[in-house]
Every structure is written in structure tokens, then in C-alpha cells.
Amino acid sequence: MFRFVRLLLVLVVPAPSTLAAQRAAYTAGWGDVATVGGAGLLALLPAGLSLPHGPPPCAPCDPAGLWGIDRWAVHPVDARAGSASDVLLLGVAGSAGLASVLGVPAGRARGNAAVYWDAVSLTGATTEWLKVLVHRSRPVLYTADAAAAAGSHDNRMSFPSGHTAFAFAAVTSYAVLARRQQLRHATRNSVLLFIGAAGVGALRVAAHKHFPTDVAAAAALGSGIGWLVATVHPTTP
Fold first, then answer.
1. Could you give the maximum distance between any two Cα atoms of the chain, in Å?
2. How far apart are CA 109 and CA 115, in angstroms?
3. CA distance 127 to 133
4. What does pTM read for this prediction?
């Protein structure tokens, strides 16, 4: 498993040349403040407006309409696995953020923090609005508990998994900037953090809060945003 993730990092995250490493210091400015603040407001807006409106299309829904891989998640919510996913997400995202700035000169640390928060906030806004637009029913609405769960608009926001998207955005942004800047233990940290992010996704399915396809899409979404932000974010000349 470790060898596979190491190979994936080598293939996906380009190794910096000496010149690229010298220019890998990210800038941090008011544009980042505006990005994080604006994305944060957008992410909170669906909950403030109680979106999506209206009752679910079915309660209970027929599992026969699901893909075979998703039927495994059709069970009542497992609160313990849900709590474990919350704790693991905090650990993974927090560790990625700290690894981006610890042991780094102050000026470079500010730029790294800007990249991290840009990636996480943009992922939050994108994820929340995709949930509203897709308004996919959560697994609980396919169970006998559907009638009690139908009143919550959150139970119509299964796709994609926000926890998983956050975890992969945080880890991927760290992996890209750490490799570009040749930070200490970059590969080891990235391997462990990607395993942790995968664990967050697995726990969301185990908690029956999301379908496997919700988690897979979220991993791709979070990874894509994390990679894009860390790749295109302005650097010092």
C-alpha cells in the first residue's frame, strides 16, 4: 500500500527542478482573504436557506434503483462510525495544515497557509452547492427509518461526501506544495495523510451517511481542487 501511494505521488506530483524549487514560495495577500471569506459564505448559504426545499421524492426509496455497489450502504445511520469520521477528518486536515507550515520560514509559511485555506474553502463551497444541485437522497431514506428522516433537508444532500472532499483537498494541496518545496518528510507525510483521507471516506460509507459513489466522486473532486489551487496559486518571482 505504501509503495503504491509513493508511486502515485511520483506520477501525479511533478518533482521540482532547482529553479522551480527556488520559485516555489507562494504569495499570500488580500486576494486569499477574499477567496476564503467568499467561499466560506457560499458554503454556508445552502444551510441558511434550508436548501434543497421540499420533501424527498420518496421515503422510503426503492434500493433496486441504485447501482449494486451503492446498495451496501442502505442501512440505518451508524452514529459511532459517523463520529469516528469526524475525528479522523479533523486529524487528517489538521495534520496537513500543520505540516504545510511547521518548520518553514515565516514568509513561506504564510503562503503555504494561503494555499491550504484556499483549497479547503473552495472545496467547501463547491461541495455544498453540488449537494444542493444534485439533491441525492442519503442511504437512510432507503430504509425503514425514512419517514422520520424525510423532514431533514440534509438527508437530500448525499452527493458528494463533504468529509471526503475536505480530506482529499487538504492532503493533495499539502502533497503538491511539499514536493515543490522539498519539505522534510514530504513523501512519508503524504502517504500517511492519503491513507487517512481514504479512511475518512471509508468511515462515511460505514456510517451509512453516504454511498460509495458519493465518496469516490468527493475524493476526485477534493483532489482536483487541491491540486489545482496548489499548482496555479501565484508564487514569488
1. 61
2. 10
3. 10
4. 0.90
